[in-house]
Description:
Layout: H1 21-43, H2 47-74, H3 79-102, H4 109-131, H5 136-156, H6 163-185, H7 196-219, H8 226-247, H9 254-261, H10 264-275, H11 277-300, H12 306-329, H13 336-353, H14 359-383, H15 392-398
Helix pairs in contact: 1-2, 1-3, 1-7, 1-11, 2-4, 2-6, 3-4, 4-5, 5-6, 6-10, 7-8, 7-11, 8-11, 8-14, 9-10, 10-12, 11-12, 12-13, 12-14, 13-14
Amino acid sequence: MHSKLSAPVFKSADGERSATWLELFFDLVFVVSVAALSYRLEHHFTREGVLLLFVYFLPIWWCWMEYSYYGDLFDDDSVSYQFLMLTGMAGVMYMSLVIRSDGLAGSRLYELTYIFMGGVALLMYLRAYIMYPDLRWFTRRFMGTIALSIGCFALSLWFEPPWRYLLWVLGIAIQAAASPSIYLFRRDYPVQLSHMPERFGLFSIIVLGEGIVALTAASQAEQFSYDVAVYVLGGFALTVCIWKLYFYEASKDTITEQLKENTRRSTLMSFFYGYSHYFLYISVMLISVSILILIESSIAEHPHPPLAVYLLHGACVLFLTAITLIHWAAPESLFRSVVLARIGCVVASAILLVTELPAIGEVYAQVGVLSCLIVAEYLIYRSHGVTPEQGEEQMTEAA
């Protein structure tokens, strides 16, 4: 028997749950974090800077995951819950300020802020521990993994890179591995009307939106020219393609349906679906920054850095891989022909990595690859007489 939670806020008459105003406000704060990380990579555009982006984005993304999943379970719109969420938002803002002021591989303030946010998360689960006596086994395990994660970050204060970063990864890996294990080995876990897929989609919009803002800022430069406008339009077209490919098969019921199946495979798929978004967000950030670097090179009339071209196509390969894994983990069937079309586009993007084109040609070649994929997927679904929006039952029958 699954434990029942109180009715979620913002639940419509037809049983569909939506994000609350506080959750939308919470997500908005992460715009600053994404912008700060992109800013640091843009001004420290090296291979080391790219690797550090993967490392420094991980604690920010996990904070979003931790607070969002708690809200998915225990949001009751109370004053205490709002206070803890707003406190966490202040921590995210401070992490962003640390990145902008000290840069990647900066001071120990980054770890200290994450430790503070972990402490707030502990208070949130302590709140749930008191409010839901029948779920104390559940909240106790989350509190234990959060404490272990905080311990790893506290220990990292005494080390220098790369051991410092390895302890970060270890701390987050403990939580990332512990969460699905709780669901795998206990069958009486709480089943909520989850709206996490909607939250993942909103965060995707945030990352895409930050890229558009950066492109707009580049288009307002004093040295604005026709070449810059062409780059900006290419970047916008690429952003539109990413948006379309991700949301073409997005479902709001992914996690709810997986948890209702109550099998180990469905449980693993729900976490696989969520964790794959980390690579999706990283790929979008890398694409945006690489286009900005190409624009800046055009304005300064300098040769474009080869790293920008490699990142542009490499990040598109990562994006295509990530959305395929995300859509595969959802309950809906992913047509084999769609997977083959995406594999073909991965190969095409990989070929562009070793093909020398003018900088602007690199951007529009990648736009062409993703545009062809959108058309191909549309024709595939149309040939089966369905669209992704029709839902799981129709998609499964057609497959």
